[in-house]
Amino acid sequence: MPDDKRPTLYDSNLNFFRKLILQARLVWLLMRDPRVPLWLKALPLGSMAYLLMPFDVVTDLAPILGQLDDLAVIFIGLSTFVSLCPQSVVDEHMRALRGETEGWTVDSKRETKPTDDDPNVIEGAYTEPPDEPKP
Known about the structure:
Helix content is 47%, strand content 0%. The longest helix has 20 residues, at 65-84. The model is unreliable at 4-8 (pLDDT under 50). By secondary structure, the chain is mainly α. The protein has a domain at 16-98.
């Protein structure tokens, strides 16, 4: 895909932050999906609620360890949530996030502007209809 100048968001060589964004979007889609059991949706909510709790396993006053335990609880909660969700639902949402949905594909070899000899382009014109008089 060296000819394609557009940035690639989701491919097999994602860096850490793009994978993190992908996983966050996956969790969001799974939370909204009615096929995921309601009791399972409490897991990410509980891990996020841990941030708001006034007490921690390791206090936040410790310079680095206080924040690391918060991140660990969120990471473990979200990864456990994704692993416990029905695999077919997770696969469906991952394909959709990567643009691999059935019947719809991204044509990465297409030019940014269609050429005049492209048979898929329909030429047309649009004109504003005249204003109708108000009664």
